[in-house]
Specification:
mainly alpha, elongated
Length: 160
């Protein structure tokens, strides 16, 4: 066991290899990702699709999640103070009615509160995006392995 631990520590530099070592075999990894697909995409799970197609569907969904969280984590929220100043200048216009000012203030406060919450959770969005990207790598690995294998597995190891 100490040998395995030390070899995993050495391989820790390459994240894909070290996480790949968490699975005893490619079949175990495949079973994990098909189970993940069952939870993330339950409507697609009971359809008659090959394992390869289920993995491709899972990959597409993970890419969508990554594309959603990526911009939230990558956005620079330093311009919020300029937005507040600009809104303050807008509110000083005397030709705007009191009702219009109150409505604008309410809408603006909700939007600013939303932006502050996004800025607050930026590091978590970055972490989630990284997790999705690593799962995408693993699913790509399994997909490539299934596509290059002579015998394509058409049965789902979870339902067997």
């Amino acid at each position: 066991m100490e040998e395995n631990l030390s070899s995993q520590q050495v391989l820790h530099r390459n994240d894909f290899v070290s996480v790949h070592n968490a699975f005893a075999s490619d079949e175990e990894m495949l079973k994990f990702y098909l189970t993940m697909n069952c939870f993330i995409n339950p409507l697609e799970y009971h359809t008659e699709k090959t394992v390869l197609q289920k993995l491709k569907d899972l990959r597409n969904l993970l890419v969508q999640f990554s594309n959603f969280t990526g911009p939230v984590g990558a956005h620079n929220y330093d311009g919020i103070d300029n937005m507040i100043r600009g809104f303050g200048l807008y509110m000083t216009h005397t030709e705007i009615s009191l009702n219009k000012r109150n409505e604008s203030n309410r809408v603006f406060s909700h939007n600013i509160q939303y932006l502050f919450h996004l800025a607050n959770y930026k590091k978590y969005a970055n972490r989630l995006c990284g997790i999705y990207r690593s799962h995408i790598q693993y699913v790509d690995y399994l997909t490539e392995k299934l596509e290059t294998s002579a015998i394509e597995s058409t049965t789902d190891p979870i339902t067997e």
